[in-house]
Amino acid sequence: MQRFSVRNCVTTNCRGSVQALPQLRPAMNDPESREMLLSIAPTALPIGISGIEKRFGGVSVLRDLSLDVAAGEFLTLLGPSGSGKTTLLMILAGFVRANAGSIKVGGEEIIAMPPHRRNIGMVFQNYALFPHMNVFHNIAFPLKQRRVSTAETAERVEKALDLVQLKGLGERRVDQLSGGQRQRVALARAIVFEPRIVLMDEPLSALDKSLREHMQIELRNLHRRLGMTTVYVTHDQREAITMSDRIAVMNAGCIEQIDRPEVLYAAPKTRFVAGFIGDSNFIPVESRNGSVWYEDRKIRMTSAVPAAGCHLMVVRPEKLRLVADAQPAGSVNVIPATVGDVIYQGDSFACYATLRDGRQVTLRDYCRSDVLARLPGPGEPVNLGIDAEDVVLVAAD
Amino acid sequence: MSMQSAILPHAGARTLNADALHADARRETFGLLALLSPGLLLVFAVIIVPIGWLFWLSLFDETGSLSASNYARFFQQPSYIKTFLTTFKVAFAVTGACVVLGYPLAYMLSQLPRRAASICLILVILPFWTSVLVRTYAWLVILQRKGLINSWLIDLGVISQPLPLANNFAGVIIGMTHIMLPFLVLPLYASMKTIDIDCLRAGMNLGASPAATFRQIFFPLSLPGLASGVVIVFVLCLGFFVTPALMGGGKVIMWAMRIEQTTSLYSNWGAGAALGVVLLAVTLALLGLFQWLLGARATGVWSSR
Amino acid sequence: MSMENALPISHRQRLWLYALGALVLLFLIAPSVIIVIMSFSGSTLLQFPPEQWSLRWYESYFGSVEWRDATIVSVKVAVMTMIVATPLGTAAAYAINAGTLRLTGAINALLTASLIIPVILIGIGTFFLYARIGLNNTLTGLVIAHTVQALPLVVLTVVSGLRSYDMNQEKVARSLGANRFSAFLQVTMPQIRFSIVSGALFAFITSFDEVVVSLFISGGETTTLTRRMFNALRDQIDPTIAAISTCLIVLSIVLLSAAQLFGRGR
């Protein structure tokens, strides 16, 4: 078993996270603290999920689902409610039994193993802290189950508390903690016994917006420092994009697409993924004679032309822009439209326009002075420009 | 990695580990059944087996041959018919009295501020926790010929002869109403508490007078709770023993008393068993009808005790 | 969620309702109050209020070997019923709450059957059964019969406790390395202990106050207090029973307060 070092420790921290968490830096620069972090770092193992079937009654919730998670990876299961993401997480933890399938952690089959022998750290949506124990005993719970000596327990709990920045709060009762602190206790409890993997079920959804955004970065950093294999469930696409190494977009019991966040955003493979991650305009196009056509206009594109038939062109609102010339020039496609409304949004504006076929599209751009000077009014005809490299096609349903 | 490529390597492996998972599921089921089994076993041994046995007994007459004579007796012997009539008369009267007394009380409890309501509620629950015998004894003391009510009324000069309050129909009704009242008030109160106060505010806001709001909004919404209270009271009355046995003065013979007499006094187990079987059938039929009509569980009242 | 001033109707307009409610409450509570007062009467006549006061009926209760033996039998049976019914009911409640079993409805119906089946039927049934296996007039027989009657109350109380408990806590305890039983003991039980204690108190009082079944299956050395009281009441109204009743009322109040206190601890 390979023990991961504190990889990506400081170097990969983006500027924002360091600003948000100034207190983390000294801890990591101090060689003693570095030693401490190493000793609590869980052993990261890869997870191989294959052929998972789950039916509730006669209803199929997960259909032949397979997924590989690399050792040390932060993978997010993203999907609307009812997509099966939480069921999959519960199957991983052992609280829901699949009808068939295999889960291998570091090569070992765990699908029929009881939860307490799986060595998986789990953080629930409502944290599920034990209200009859104080913070210390909550975090010590997994160590007590493993008959860790009192002295070592105290030491490891102390380290875990330090890691989640709750030093000195061990004697607090759970009901004396704020939402964010509870979240940290739940996290400390889930990692203090060096689990093979860590599972999180929408752990931030109970927090208010600003704290949630802060905790996203903090969780991300903690993952970078400890390098534990993490499977994270959320329905919030922004959260998924912010935190994940890879995102698996789930819909109706299947994985629609699994990729790095930037790839998912730039090149969605299905209409569902395009619609679920970020805002999208869908423009119907047709592929014939080796080219793609929007009405009578040939679409210039850098990606391969798909098989003949109807497709949808996915265009993000910020990739549309207003162009002066009605004729396509160079690698820019031009689509005529009529402005319906222009909404000023402070740093940006949104322009709602209607295509000739009656379809609504949205265009978003920053409020730069040159753009603002030429803003069209309602009812005005405009030309919408799309760069060839921004053209993404998905199958029409 | 598209969905397609993710699935392909595993295609055909749809039943991977299915047997192991199935066995695991069975293990869990056995574990849970093991937790249930001592309780279920006791209930089975002490309730189901004897009642089945009684049912079997009821199918034979005194000579030991298979016959329906134990059941035919219900329609032939006037004393049996009188028992049934008395039983239903008592059950209807007690249920009616409980509704008349219990509805205003539950309504008041639901309208009182929280603290006051919980204090009043204790006064409802305390009798619930007090032995039926103690409460019956109390009513005997209060109602008998030389009891409190009669001696007061005579002292006050209202009456010259003691009123016959105990050891008759009236005594049974009063005693049983006292015992059954909490069974009606508690579920009714619970259902009244769930009525959204905004519905009433909206009713008044839309121009209904307080009386009309009560009649057209509150009362219909409280009916399910009232129905469950009524059914449980009625069903308990049908099989009630202690109070009529002690307060009926031998004149009010109810169904349960007839069962006791037939088995203990005359040792006619076949006849007693037949009475018991029919009583159980009527009880279950009423509860079943209630559950079918309202989809509610009659045992709900117990958990509010 | 205070109901105060819930509707634009003043308390004055509601006066008739309060008066009616108070009368019904009086009807419910007065008999117990009267019995408690009369138990301290000094005369054999049933007068209210008593003209002279004494403890003679309590002396008569505690001085009588028969009453004392019956009380001891009842306490023994009630304690044993509580000890048996509480773990059995808690285990059954846990299994029901897990909700993964098929036929949960039927299991529920069976476990709570004794609440619905007329007690007289359970009485003659158990008597008939016990006559065959020699359990009539034994403590064991009484405890078994009372356990069956107390079980549904324990099950219902503990199930409702489990319903308001967050099962994720037990799940998280299991994922942290505790097996199911150990997770229940360490995490679930401390948090539903109020329901379990209430259930135990129900079991105790159910057994202690049980009359009808005891009439059939207890007797001789194992005559319960309620059976002896029932027979005494059939014959004549002995004021000693007022003293016993007062003791039973006090017991009810103590147990009810204990249940309420535990309930508040939640």
UniProtKB/TrEMBL annotation, chain C:
Alphabetical list of SUPFAM superfamilies matching this protein: MetI-like (SSF161098)
Membrane topology, from the record: Multi-pass membrane protein
Sequence intervals crossing the membrane: 15-40, 77-97, 109-131, 143-162, 241-262
InterPro entries named among the record's database cross-references: MetI-like (IPR000515), MetI-like_sf (IPR035906)
Domain ABC transmembrane type-1 positions: 71-259
Keywords, alphabetical: Cell inner membrane, Cell membrane, Membrane, Transmembrane, Transmembrane helix, Transport
Similarity section: Belongs to the binding-protein-dependent transport system permease family.
Name used for this protein in its record: ABC transporter permease
